[in-house]
Amino acid sequence: MRKGLLPAIITLVTLVILGRLFYLQVIDDSFEKKSENNAIKIVYEYPERGYIYDRNGKLIVANQPSYDIMVIPREVKNIDTLELCHLLDITIDDFNRILNKAKVYSPRLPSIFLPQLNKVEYAAFQEKIRKFEGFYIQKRALRDYQVNAAANVFGYIAQVNDKIIKENPYYKSGDLIGMQGVEKTYEDVLRGVKGVKYRQRDKFNKDIGSYKNGIYDTTAVQGKDITISLDIDLQKYGEELMVNKRGGIVALEPSTGEILALVTAPNYDPALLVGRQRSRNYTKLWNDTIGMPLYDRGLLAEYPPGSPFKILTALIGLQENVVDERTTFMCNHGFFYGKGAFMKCHDSGAIDLHRAIYKSCNTYFANTFKLVVDKHGAKEGVNTWANHLKSFGLGQFMGYDLPAGRKGHIPTSDYYDRWYPSGGWRSTTVISNSIGQGEVLMTPIQLANMMATVANRGHYYTPHIIKKIENQEIDKKFTTKHQTTVDPIHFEPIVAGLADVYNVGTARSLKTPDIQMAGKTGTVENFTKINGKRVQLTDHSVFVAFAPVDNPKIAIAVFVENGYWGSRYAGPIATLMVEKYLRGSRDSIKRKDLEKRMLNASLQFEYDKPVSNQPFVINR
Q1: pLDDT tens-place string over residues 121-176
Q2: Is residue 241 a contact partner of residue 479, using CB atoms and an 8 Å limit?
Q3: Which of 41, 277, 377, 610 has its CA 20 to 30 A from that of 268?
Q4: Considering the entire predicted model, what is its pTM?
Q5: How far apart are CA 480 and CA 468, in angstroms?
Q6: For residues 466 and 478, is the Cβ–Cβ distance under 8 A?
């Protein structure tokens, strides 16, 4: 045994050494590349990003030239540092910090030394660049926004970080990449393909021409143009209406699921995130933790939906055959559902489905919800109710093509079992869900999609921002119809009630000549914590609508934080948005009284109340 051990060890070590030599000489070409890098310089040619157009063919995002000063640390020799710093308006400390960072990345590879010079700065440096060995200028393209709206939709472009470089070898230090919005989702389409040129250098590090006559060189390919579904004029109008207010607006085309407007308020000018001030401006926006302009309320804010949720309660009641159009419930300004438990209502008398919708009777929908749940027993009943809601796209990510999103919340029996581990919960325990309070949460885009589904009488298409990609088809999931679990026949009585919301109901003051709209007002309780205590703030204003009633062209949801009640702020804004879209121009709007009031209105004093200690308005 001992005689064979030594030869075995020698054989094993020999095999390991031979294997390593084979790997280094045959498989691993890193040393060859490093050797070549001494004689060959790789120069990248950056393509223009694809242009972005709105649904009507208007150019909304183009490009502008930008110039980055690049540095290859090991080639920086014998330069006048003071002159360079003076020329670029930086300090010696800045110079050392940037150069040291570049060395950490790679002494041999180029890094950005100073990004995004304007034309004047570029011309001044170009004139003296020969004096600064190791530095050169890289031309790139930055975004040039043709509008000062829709920043939340566009997103922005920024330099890649180390994590992105490690995850995707396409990107090198200093490259730009889409961040947020359309720029992020369609990065692979918009960015194009970089061109690569190999330049040969002599022993004095001088450029002596292309390597092997350029047989390995490639030409940059410009990014593809895209058309998004946004109506930029409608988007701008919505942002104007939401000045000095907080909330979100989402408008969809029911027949396609295309997003017509996606407004978040407050917002910002997309041009702020372009150029050398981008980082500073982004920090300011990020640090605004009160207004949160970087927070897309249309996609991310989860609110109790309030009375618009009654539409779904009614549809589920009809589908579950616990009510029909003739069913009535007696309302005495509210609904008793337990000892000392009373849900207030503004209506009274014998209420049928039609009146319940246009008058927004809490009693009717509380009874309907109770019958649905009790029909199957509490646990199975809540799950049946939840499954119907999920078929509308609620309680889950909707699959739209923007990177931000939240699921909202649709509670199930498991959720209530965790809250009530000893059991004992029943339909009346969770009765607030019937009117969109309780534990239900929805985002504005989910509310808009709900109305698009009602407008379509029972089906919807996944909301999406893309309309067309140059020489490429869009994802088929955006043209796939989603059918709800509620039969189409049950939608007609609901639509009739929603139309009368404008004619004789809670939004009758918002009726617009020549346009038949269907809508629903909502007033949502609003709570927060101040100094550790749960405090009820001024109610939110919510409104959903679609129009025309027959062959609808637009469905919309408007949520205005601290907006008192549905017809006070959200209702007028939704009505004006619908009218603007259907009439085609702002000049054609007939409800100028509503427009003037909304453009001049401000809720800033409401948002200041946690600091000013003024009382909040409670509408209950």
Answers
A1: 788 888 888 889 889 888 888 899 999 999 999 999 988 888 998 898 888 877 88
A2: no
A3: 610
A4: 0.86
A5: 16
A6: yes
